[in-house]
Design a protein that fits this description.
Length: 144
Amino acid sequence: MYYYYNLLLTIIILIVGTGVAFFIDHFSKQLEKWIPKKLLTLTIILILFTLMTSATLMISSLTGFRLMDTAFISSLCFFALGWFTNISKRAGINQASTAAKFITNNQFKYDYESASTSNKSPYLIASFLFLVLSWGISFYMAYH
C-alpha cells in the first residue's frame, strides 16, 4: 500500500515542480526587457536546476526511495519534458511562420525562426545539466 502512495506522491511532486519550472521559464521572457539576456538566462538555469534538485530531494525524503535512484529516474523525467517541450515549441513557430508566408505570398519576413536555430529554452538546458550530473554521480558511486 505504501508503495502506491509513494508512487502517487512522486508523480504529484514532479507535476507541481514541472509546472513551477515552466512558469519560471515563460516568465523569464517578460523579464528580458529589464535584465540583460545572458545574465537572466544563467539565473533562470540556476533557479531551475535548484528546483529540480530540491524536488528530487523532496521525493527521496518523503517516499523513502534512495537519493541516487530517485535522481536517476527524475532526471530522465525532467529531460524528457524539456525535450518534448522544446520540439513542440519549434514546431509551433515553424507552423505559424509557414502559414504566414503562405498567406502573404512569401512577403512575411519578420518573427520567423527555423527549427535549426540554437535558441534552447533554459528549462531544456537545466534539465540536461541535471541529467548529466545526476547520472555521472550515480555511475561514479556505483563503480567506486
